[in-house]
Specification:
InterPro entries: DUF1232, UCP031804
Number of helices: 5
Order of helices and strands: HHHHH
Protein name: YkvA family protein
Membrane topology: Multi-pass membrane protein
Radius of gyration: 14 Å
Main location: membrane
Largest sheet: none
Distance between the termini: 47 Å
Shape: globular
Number of strands: 0
Keywords: Membrane, Transmembrane, Transmembrane helix
Helix content: 55-70%
Length: 117
């Protein structure tokens, strides 16, 4: 069995708290944040194919990671690389994101006090 390499920039797995913290920071910068959250629910669905889950989790990990190509703390351009990665991932798996995933996203955003404009 192949050993999973240690990633020095991330000492713990990405948590649900990390995800929601990043969503709350990004909501004003990513116009399709509801679709991002729907993709998260798609990845958590047992019926979603493994390939689609891998694509979504890879994009979400990049979105959440504090160290990426353009740091998110840069006001005007911080989320541009995240937008590109998320757009490509969502376009690739769009057929697997169901109305139930979108409804769960809408409800979760409301439950987490995330206001989508």
């Amino acid at each position: 069995m192949a050993k999973i390499p240690h990633l020095p920039f991330r000492s713990k797995p990405v948590s649900r708290e990390d995800f929601w913290r990043t969503v709350k920071r990004a909501v004003r910068h990513i116009p399709f944040i509801e679709e991002v959250v729907a993709a998260y629910y798609c990845a958590m669905d047992r019926k979603t194919p493994l390939r689609a889950k891998g694509i979504i989790f890879g994009a979400l990990a990049y979105f959440i990671m504090p160290a990426d190509a353009i740091p998110d703390i840069l006001v005007l351009v911080g989320f541009t690389d995240d937008i590109a990665v998320l757009t490509a991932a969502i376009a690739t798996v769009r057929a697997h994101i169901t109305p139930a995933h979108r409804l769960a996203a809408k409800e979760a955003l409301a439950d987490n006090d995330v206001v989508v404009s």
